[in-house]
Amino acid sequence: MPEQENFQSLPLVPLKNSVLFPNLLMPLSVGRPASLAAVEAALATEEKEIVIVAQRESGVDSPGPKDLYTIGTKAVIRKMSRPSEDLVEVLVLGVERVIILKLEEAEPFIRARVRPLPMPQDAGGAELEALTRALLELGAKAISVTQGGQPPQNPVELGKLLGFTDEPLRLVYMLASMFSLDLAKEQELLEAPTRVEALRLMHGYLSHELQVLELRNKIATDARTEMSKEQREYLLRQQMRAIQQELGEKNSDQADVEMLREQIEKADLPPDVLKEANRELQRLERMPQGQPEHQVIRTYLELILELPWNKRTEDNLDLARARQVLDEDHYNLKEVKERILEHLSVLKLNPEAKAPILCFVGPPGVGKTSLGQSIARAIGRKFERMSLGGMHDEAELRGHRRTYIGALPGRLIQAVRRAGANNPVLMLDEVDKLGRDFRGDPAAALLEILDPEQNKTFRDNYLDLPFDLSKCLFITTANTLDTIPRPLLDRMEILRLSGYSEEEKVHIARRYLIPRQLKQTGLTAEQCRITDDGLRKLITGYTREAGLRRIEQAIGRVARKVTLKFAEGNTTAVVIDAGAVVEMLGPESFYQEEARKEMVPGVATGLAWTEAGGDVLYIEATLLPDGKGMTLTGQLGEVMQESAKTAQSYVWSHADSLGIDPELFKSSGVHVHVPAGAIPKDGPSAGVTMTTALASLYSGNPARSDTAMTGEVTLTGLVLPIGGVKEKVLAARRAGINRVILPKANQKDLRDLPEPVRKETEFIFAERVEDVLAAVIPGLAERLTITRKVA
Amino acid sequence: MKIWSIYLSPERRPETSNAWRPPVDVYRKGASWLLKFDLAGVRPADVRIRLAGSRVTVSGVRRDWIVDQGYSYHSMEIMYNRFERTVELSGDLSNAEYSFEARDGLLLVRVDIAQ
Fold this sequence. Notes:
The complex is a heterodimer of chains A (791) and B (115). Chain A has 29 helices and 24 strands. Chain A is of the alpha/beta class and 791 residues long. In chain A, the strands form seven sheets. Chain A has a five-stranded mixed beta barrel. A five-stranded parallel β-sheet of chain A has the order 8-9-12-7-13, with helices on both faces. The longest helix of chain A is centred in the first third of the chain and has 52 residues, at 195-246. The relative contact order of chain A is 0.05. Chain B is 5% helix and 43% strand. Chain B has one helix and seven strands, in the order H-E-E-E-E-E-E-E. In chain B, a hairpin with a 2-residue loop joins strand 3 and strand 4 (55-62). The relative contact order of chain B is 0.26.
């Protein structure tokens, strides 16, 4: 062939990630503008020839000379179509290997000057033959592996299928494109200097490829074996069961079912429950033990068996004994004790009577919970308690449906199960501290539970059978009624346990707390004796509460100090008097002299009711010269602010009779403050105190410091009754104030007070606010008509 | 399986040579043969005929040409460039005579084996 025919100038298409081998067809999608132009140019020629060269990096979009390999393939375009405007699909057939001598143009497409680079007809001989056969065998094996372990094809057969006849290079190229080698390897094959070299390279690649394939197959097979191992275990178990049956041995499953069946027969279940239990038992029988559902049904059946459907404890109807038990455990609390005894007498006449649902309301530490226990003891019932404080999930009370994994019956059913009787005393503590959120409102669930009409057929979600709760004696406790929803409150009988007076505390300490603490520390009554003085000091100097918790703690501290003395060698009895208490407990935490000795005009002593009992609070008012209106501070609620305004209006309108210059109201403002400033306060009962403070301020006469007062005031000066009289009077007494002004309508509440308090306190009952002012502001007493009544 | 189906589809089947194979009909009348090649658009000057042993080989190049200026390809299905087709006849062709003509897009090759 003449020299010049060997060189050709052809359009060039760079190829990403792949190499076109001679004699192979390859479909190409051409989208890059330069490549499109190259294809168009090739199509416009007579022979449709083009050069395809791999580019070194697939990321380069418009490759230059450096980005292209120098050896490529001349190809003929066999088919061409345009699926869209900017995309051309061509089918190219590799013709021969070419070397790129020069890139002649770059725009609008690369045109390359190329020369064919035929594979030298090396002799090869035996080596070529051997390599060809080895490669054929390897190829057949690799193909069989990819097909999932079919026996390898006959290599000769494969050769025919691959179109391999006599040219080993074609086999190499075919296998290379079948096993998607990476670009570098493909290019290396294309550039191989001799046939032997190309065969050798391909052999190496294919061996590697084969290893990878085999490894992948092994992983897949391993996973399969794992599975069949489990199946094998299952089969063995089935066989074991069959053998056991042959031998006449019952398997453990069936033994279980038999046992449950026997228990169900023996248990005296109501007909409905029996039916359900038998149904579940049948399901259990048919179910293999391994299934999770098996355990669920078993647990359910066990619950049914353990619940006290018909079991109940006999009530102790001996009233005298019941009274004795109640008195042993708690001092006073007459109202509650009477209510319990009433119920016992009803039960005596009508054993099927519905149990009352009681609600004990009172400050912390007054013995609400322990009273419940004591009631259970008195009437001889089981006692179970649960705290509802912070509970916010209805399912806690009513249980989860059995379809849920890990479902449990609600706390009520669990409590009844623990009690083992269907008439226990069930104490629901802290019913005022129920939470509620998106999961449901436990208070609403309580509505059903605490309604004697509905709780006869209480349905727990888990149990899904009606259970009769109407025989249970429900007792709830709360510190305040404000947070209890109205419908829930209606269902309960409210019994108030107010705070204890000092006298009561002394009694309780003597009878219950001291013996209990001595017992805990291991002392005898002889070894440690607390005098009345000492006890009073301990109560007034170290505690300030409605209940008894701190007192018991303080007594415990004293007892432990005494124990220490004995441990250190003391042998004589220790007498604790007031001095010893101070010595043991350190300086007093609270001062008896709460009451202010000196009072300036504008200050009045009020009484407040709190959750922890009562408290004394001072209302201070002061004039603001050149000021305007009324400023109120001390976290006052809306009602209290209004009552302050009412008080001011009253004083203003009666300025004349109180001897006040009306100009004062116009010329200056007033500021009313109620300490302690950080505690929120509300309610109308500070009305009289506000009025007193303002009257004292404007008239310039101080109020008496030994008098505390409470009561609501109307604009026309009427004094209306208020609540919490006992707590308020006790608070005044704790603060050392023995003169208390109360609304006339509250006179009846005095009977709640302990005898000594009633005797030692001077009560003034006011109908009109003038009565109050006359009693508390000496400077005004003469100006006002006095209607004073002493209890 | 996949590999087979892909690689043995007509498109990917390797060519035994780089040339395409035109279809051919073979007629016979005694010792005379008539071969009709589907070779439209091939110039007679670009066709080469060889007789060797009992085989007739027709090869050549189909060159494309521009029909009307300004048109470019939208799609292409006709194969261009080199073609080659060998037909096995019976008998020795060493003394045979042959002639060919192009008619209506077909190439007719007549081979007469000397008696």
